[in-house]
Specification:
The structure is a single chain. By secondary structure, this protein is mainly α. The protein has one domain: Rhomboid-like (Rhomboid-like fold), CATH 1.20.1540. The chain is built from 12 helices and 3 strands. Strands 1-2-3 form a 3-stranded antiparallel β-sheet. A hairpin with a 2-residue loop joins strand 2 and strand 3. Helix 10 packs across helix 11. The radius of gyration is 18 Å and the shape is globular. It starts with a strand and ends with a helix.
């Protein structure tokens, strides 16, 4: 199933979501319109490479690449899929968490994905680029915050609204299988950093859970956020 749109938008401006989409689009255009030599140079300088973590003389150098790699994508399809998922799932999450916490969730999930890819394939020398792991963290937040609120999806033969947990869990299942296959087949594993996707997802779950825990320690702040997005009450109560 493919998510298409959010049937109950927040009616707030998702500034961070828009900014991420703009930066990813700009990064793709600037990268892919260069000559092949420059494109390769960009990858060597900005992409995250697990193999460099243990070989680099710089302590933080390889991990700064995990941040720069978020804004590069390998193809139009790669960029379009990431943009679609961020556009569909990001609006309500950003409205609920606020711009700063949403941006933090995005970046931390992206870093978590890089750590997961390094932990599972520490000798991989293939450059890793894309915002998939960071967006996976946004999916995890949507699952925690609004599991039963609908997402309109294309489900094989028809378009229909389904509870958010269904497309998110479907995505998780596909990524889990792909990670399992990739860890056993080098040729498959080199095409997509699925372990990074799962890592970003689990980090997103943890970060969102921490945000909610801190809110419970500050009842006034929690009530203020819920009042700003009133239809969140039922879903949050079910966590």
């Amino acid at each position: 199933m493919i998510p298409l749109w959010e049937p109950k938008p927040s009616h707030k401006t998702p500034w961070v979501t828009w900014t991420v989409l703009l930066l990813c689009g700009a990064g793709f255009v600037f990268h892919r319109t260069r000559d092949p030599y420059t494109q390769q140079a960009w990858l060597e300088a900005l992409a995250f490479v697990p193999d460099l973590v243990d070989k680099s003389d710089e302590m933080l150098g390889p991990w700064t690449r995990a941040l720069s790699a978020l804004w590069l994508h390998t193809s139009v399809a790669h960029l379009a899929i990431n943009a679609l998922y961020l556009w569909v799932f990001g609006d309500r999450v950003e409205s609920r968490l606020g711009h700063v916490r949403f941006a933090s969730l995005f970046v931390i999930s992206g870093l978590g994905g890089a750590v997961a890819q390094w932990a599972t394939t520490p000798e991989a020398s293939v450059p890793m680029v894309g915002a998939s792991a960071a967006i996976a963290g946004i999916l995890a937040a949507r699952l925690l915050l609004y599991p039963r609120e609908p997402i309109t999806v294309w489900n094989l033969l028809r378009i229909e609204p389904l509870p958010a947990w269904m497309p998110v869990c479907g995505w998780f299942f596909v990524q889990s299988v792909a990670t399992w296959v990739g860890m056993r087949n080098v040729a498959v594993g080199r095409t997509a950093a699925n372990a990074a996707h799962l890592g970003g997802f689990f980090v997103g779950l943890a970060v969102t859970a921490l945000f909610l825990a801190f809110e419970r320690l500050r009842p006034g702040k929690s009530q203020s956020n819920e009042g700003a997005d009133a239809d969140s009450d039922a879903s949050i109560a079910g966590i």
